[in-house]
UniProtKB/TrEMBL annotation:
GO terms for cellular component: cytosol. The keyword Amino-acid biosynthesis applies. Coiled coil: none annotated. Belongs to the lyase 1 family. Argininosuccinate lyase subfamily. This is Argininosuccinate lyase. GO terms for biological process: L-arginine biosynthetic process via ornithine.
Amino acid sequence: MKQEGFKFPGITYAEVVLEPAFENAKKQLLEPMLEINRAHLVMLVEQHLLTQKEGATILDAISQMDIETIKNTSYDGEYEDLFFLIESEIIRHAGEIGGSLHLARSRNDLGVAIYRMTLRQHILQTIQSAQNFQQTLLDVAEEHLDTLMLGYTHTQQAQPMTFAHYLLAVYDFVNRDVKRLFNAYKTCNKSPLGAAALTTTGFPINRYRVAELLGFDGLVENSYDAIAGADYLCEAACAIKVALISLGRVAQDLLLWSTQEFSAISVADPYVQISSIMPQKRNPVSLEHIRALSSSGVGVAETVLQMIHNTPFGDINDTEDDLQPFIWKCHKTAKDVYALSTVVIGTLKVNKNTLYERAKESFATITELADALTREVNIPFRSSHAIASKLVRICMNRKLQPSQITDKHLEEAAIHILGKPLQLSNQFVENAINPELFIQKRSQPGGPAPTEVKRMIENRKNNIKAQLLETKTLFDKLSSCSESLHEITNKWTKTD
């Protein structure tokens, strides 16, 4: 057993907690910490809590720090964490006045602000990756307006649709995921600064000014909520969890459809692997990785929620250094899964003829026969449904394919159900079970008819343009705020 001694930090505590937190902070939190220092300093000077000369001295100290050396520093226990290391560096360069940078703030509000600034970047990057995926879905859908395929319910053949219609369904749930991510960003992008430990401060600070300088959209107003609230983390984790669960379901579909038994799609060569022993193998492992990574991301997002679950509502380590890497990781996983899904789906080969023949030789169009009997012969739907159902049983018992159905078989079914023939033509039967006509008739809003799918694609192209602009605007705002902050402080160094 290691000799821990009685001096802080204990060896095991440092190895298990402090050193990993220090390494993560250097990689993810150093830049936002320095930005907050600048913004807080500007506010202190503007509020006349520090003179501009004092502010310039502290600013020079911040500027003189060797950031690369700090990034390469190993944890040795001299300082509890990165904050105290940075503070000591500022005081070393600025002298005693450097300690006044911490006027009217605490590690509590500083830490939460750093976490929020880091997370907002991760959320925006995830949104951007999802939007790239959405654009690819629209591009591929446009190529497959007329690609007939069977839709499945309960894993069984249900009704004809198109591959474009399926891809638009994927687009729409991703779009809802993006909306959830935008909402998570809005919740996250509020400033806790000025809350100090939990009750604000007796100094006349300007919380709104600091929020403005750092690109926040406002305040977490209640100072206790500012340091205790963790729902911004929960929302960001839940959005990822929902998104990756849905993406995993699509990967499962595509894996099934790429089997030789289905032969519906083929994954492009750059995204398959071969077997070390079986020469014929062409394994669509990229889809497996999409599914596996999605499941991994769901698990990491759940870790975030579990770490917060049943913790006290206050400043507590469960929501801080130990948790933060998990929220970053689940967002990085989502970003990577969207990126991989983009290239895999964007390069899929769809076996159109196979899909068409499968739809043509399926009884999945029989719904339209029931509909046609009601629509064109004025038979109540439940009776039409019974006739169509009887017709299918007759054909299956005689091992007849849909293409072999004639008016005689329909008459036999009608007589069995209604007790009389319908005297319908072969053309009526052929039209009713034609998969292309089935699709064309489904032109209600949201249906698979090519004209309706084309309308939906154009609508979504316009929507994604607006969303891309919104994402760019958010990135630009953060960048502009950072530039403005540096412009303000640059003038100080010139003046003093």
